[in-house]
Amino acid sequence: MTPARAHDICALLTCPLYLPLERLVASPYGALFLPEARARSTSALAAKFATAFLEGCGLPSESPLTVVTDVGGGGALAKIMKVRAVMKEKRTEWSAVGELPVEIPLPLPYRFHSIFACPVSKEQSSAQNPPMLLPCGHVIARESLQRLARGTPTLKCPYCPVVSHMSACVRVHF
Length: 174
Ligand SMILES: [Zn+2]
What we know:
By secondary structure, the chain is mainly α. It has helices at 3-14, 21-25, 35-56, 64-89, 142-149, and strands at residues 131-133, 139-141, 154-156, 163-165, 170-171. 42% of the residues lie in helices and 8% in strands. The strands form two sheets. A three-stranded antiparallel sheet has the order 2-1-5. A hairpin with a 5-residue loop joins strand 1 (131-133) and strand 2. It is elongated. The two termini are 30 Å apart. Bound molecules: zinc ion. Zinc ion binds at residues 134, 136, 138, 157, 159-160, 162. Its main location: cytoplasm. Residues 118-160 form the RING-Gid-type domain.
């Protein structure tokens, strides 16, 4: 318990001595019970409960619409439109479905990968076939890793010339 929290807890434990509320508001603990302070703490608490509940359900704390408008309005949409215009001018098109031809940096809270698709097998990862990090830094699915190793304890990364030991590969949790 931090000293700040200890002070809060002591104040909350002691303040009922001044009940009823009319007397409590006039007591040294009165600031805790002013309508503005109560509204502030209630809304902060409600937001904390909502975040914890959504996290427990495995849902994002922000609505998908909020994320889309924040990311799009934060410059991503403008960059995509610019890239599209440049590519149209040069008469080229990006062919990779679901991928952008340029890196678009996102604000930290929006950097998440809820889905991992193995770049080798193109299959979506699962609990049985999780993403595995190779010592070189590349990530592929466990089944692809085993297929590349062909029963040997080592494998060559499909993206760079590094040969790694199977035991050095670690599971990645998203
Ligand atoms: Zn590699």
